[in-house]
Every structure is written in structure tokens, then in C-alpha cells.
Amino acid sequence: MYLYNSATHKKEEFKTHTPGHVEMYTCGPTVYHFAHIGNLRSYIMEDVLEKYLRYAGYDVNRVMNITDVGHLTSDADEGEDKMVKGAKREHKTVLEIAQFYTDAFFDDCRKLNIKTPDVVQPATGCIDEYIKIVSKLVETGYAYLAGGNVYFDSSKLKRYYVFNDHDEEDLAVGVREGVEEDTNKRNKNDFVLWFTKSKFEDQALKWDSPWGVGYPGWHIECSGISMKYNGEYLDLHCGGVDNAFPHHTNEIAQSESYLGHPWCSHWFHVHHLNTNDGKMSKSKGEFLTVSLLESKGYDPLAYRWFCLQSHYRKALVFSYENLDNAVAAYNKLIARIAALKPEDGAVDQAVFDEYKAKFLQQMGNDLNTSMGVTAIFDVLKAKTNDATKLALIGDFDQVLSLSLLEKAAAKRAEDAKTQSTKAGGGEYTVTGEGDPAIDAQVLARYEAKKAKNFAEADRIRDELKAQGIEIIDTKGGASWKRV
Ligand code: AMP
Ligand code: ZN
Q1: Could you write out the DSSP letters of every residue in 380-431?
Q2: Superfamily of domain 2-270 in the CATH hierarchy
Q3: pTM, whole model, 2 decimals?
Q4: Which CATH architecture has domain 292-412?
């Protein structure tokens, strides 16, 4: 597979520390509120990446944290802890809202066919891990104490900005206006590893540490959890592009200083979902969640389809108009798949292998999901029987996870039901070889005759005849067969 690596700024062949095995880490949600559909764009694309790697034959160990402490309203260690803020907003405890929004996050994931990672670890469950890392960083001179907090000393590094090809705007995320400067920091890029004394007197969760009672910084959580479950060599680290700086930059700084060797070889960043007014946010404009889309009648999987149609390294603009177009295309595709006949022939292995190889290659080119989606249309157009087409679509859907075969089967059943109710209104029953589209045409012919539109009735009969279908009028209905 070829994958763009934000750390080297180029598309490169994806290589792993242990051949055939991928250690993969994903920054999980901060559970102070519902995830918006922008957050979920990142999780959808990371899910496709994981599934593609498994499909391509890798064995994958995927780890994700749940941020339930330490993520401040500014990514640059300023402001209030997001969890404390969320708890105040809802007059609940931090633990209560953490549980509630963790469950809500996984509910959304389930609706979007996002697989749960192999390991999901709330940050509050690994305090010893962070203390171990911070202690060594203090001992080796990479960290210092000031004003009661422990800071990482970025001046000790030869190179701090690893992802410096990112937009100025992304780089500036952590240094928002109106945020007071932390005068304890020796250098602009220093960051907090462990908070003890700070202005957050009302911090709900605190733990004992060699530096006093306090709580971990957000960045150390991901390093600690990854090292615990992925080991010292990470193959692939994922997150939204806003995480590249300062979060991922700081993760690299502290992890490599702690380990004494390179840590993660490949960085995968998903670009933002924006609205017409700019970056999506939980506080500005309409708070776009999966539940909101559902309440407006959208199928969450149509949103997944919408995301797959564009490349993860391009910003994507959300509007209801764009989503409506995606819904129409998704439903049309399902209708085309529903028209395939599962019993038509046996799988042609040569055709199957040819199309599968093409899909692997296209998706393996920097996770080109829009080509992956196009591959389904190519299959529909292929000169082969329906059994082969259905087998290929089911195979690709192991990666795309659009529930294509299930939805098509449901549509077939639904169409069949509609036929029998219409016909079962009593007067007219269509029997045939089990193709709802043809049943519908036979019914349309009957309705035309009833309305004395004989020209239209004859036109339908001729059209079916041209397809090799013969209609036999029976008592109280009609039957049809292929001749
Ligand atoms: P958070 O819950 O704020 O920690 O963010 C969860 C994930 O969503 C992180 O990987 C972010 O980088 C990502 N993210 C945040 N905003 C967006 C957005 N508008 N589009 C895509 N991903 C985003
Ligand atoms: Zn992280």
C-alpha cells in the first residue's frame, strides 16, 4: 500500500516494524459532548484504513484512547478542562458525563458501521503509565518543574516541528487569541506533562504523583496509552489534521525523548469537514450530530457514503444539498444491486480475481475511497453473471462498510411486498420468475389496460418481449417467463 505520511510529507510505501503486522493508534474522542459529524469523518476514514489493511492481509492491533481528563479548551494548555466544563453545563459529575458521551460515541459509530478498535482505553485508567514516563523525562532533563506543574522542555530537541507542511491556520490552533500566556514556560513550545497547581481549583479528578496531587496533560495520555498497548514501535498513528499541532508534535517530542529511539513511522491525518461558514464546531451554528441527521430522516450510512466519495486529504464541505445528492446516489446504487439476481449463475473466479486486484490497487493508492466506490459501478457494468457481481460487491464492502448487500436484500423484500399488496388489492396477481422490476412492468401494463390506454399497454408488452419476456394472461392476473 502507498500512503501519504505527514511526517515525511510524501506518499510512500507503507512498511511496518514487524512484517505483516500493524500497530495502529487513533486519538479518541474527548467525551464532554456528542461527536459532531466532522469528528466522525475522521473516524470513518480511519475505519476504512484499518479495514483495508486487514483486507490486504495485515494483522492489525488498533488502540484508541478516550479522553476523559486533561484536554483543555485550548490545545496549548490554557483554558478550562473540557470535561469539567461539560459537567458544569449539565450539572453532573465528570464521570457521569464521560460515561454518557462515551456510550453516545459508540452508538454513533455503530450507526456508521465504524468498528470498535481492539483496545479502547479511557485516559483515567493509565495514570501510572504517565507518571512512569514523566518521571524519566524529569530525570533525564527533558522536563522541568515550574509553578507546580511539570513541563516538557522543547529546547532540548534538535527538531520540534515535524509536521511543518501544515497550514498556518492549523498550526495556530493552539495559540488562540484571548488566551493568557503561561509564564511558567521556559520556551514558547513547552507543554504541560502533569498539572498540579493551576487555576483549575475545581478540577474533579486528581491523583497522587511525585510532584503533588494533580492530573495529566492531554498529550501524555496518547503516548502512555500507545506505548502500553502498541509497544515501543508504532507503525501508524491517526487523527484529524488539527491534532497534528500541537498534540501529535508533542506526542513525538515526549515519546522519542523517553524511548531514545524513533517512535512512530507513519502519520495519517484526515482533513476537516467544514460548513459553508468554515470549520465545523460544537458551539457555532447548528450542532451537526448523527442523531440530528437521523431526526431529519437521513440514513447515517448515506453520510458514510458522502465521506467516502472524497479523499481524506482534502477538506470536505458539508451542506444538506450535498448530503441530499449523496443520498440519491446511494439509494440508486442500492436499487441497482437489488435488481441483481443472487441465483444467476455461479461465481466466475477469474472475473472475481481480476476486479478484486483492481480494487486492492486503487484503494491501496493513498486510500482512494472515491475510486473504491467507482469500483462498485465498474462491477455493475461488468460482462459477467449476477452471482459474480454480488460476490464482488460483498467483498469490497468488507472495506467500505456501506451495508450494500443487506440494504439491497431489504429493498428486494420491500419491493416484493409492495407488489403483492398492490396486486393483492385483490383483482390482479403477478407471478413470474422473481424479479420485482419485471413484476412492476407487468402491473403497469395491467393498469394501462384498465385505464383504456391500450397503446401504452402494448408498448410495455413489446418492451418486455424485446427483453425476451413473455406475458401469459391468467385468471385474475398474469404470469411471465423468460423464453
Ligand atoms: P476531539 O473529540 O475534539 O478530541 O476530536 C476527535 C477527533 O475529531 C480528532 O481526531 C480531531 O482531530 C477530529 N476533528 C475535529 N474537528 C474535525 C472536523 N471538523 N473534521 C474532521 N475531523 C475533525
Ligand atoms: Zn491523541
Answers
A1: HHSSS-HHHHHHHHHHHHHHH---HHHHHHHHHHHHHHHHHHHHHTTT-EEE
A2: HUPs (3.40.50.620)
A3: 0.85
A4: Up-down Bundle (1.20)
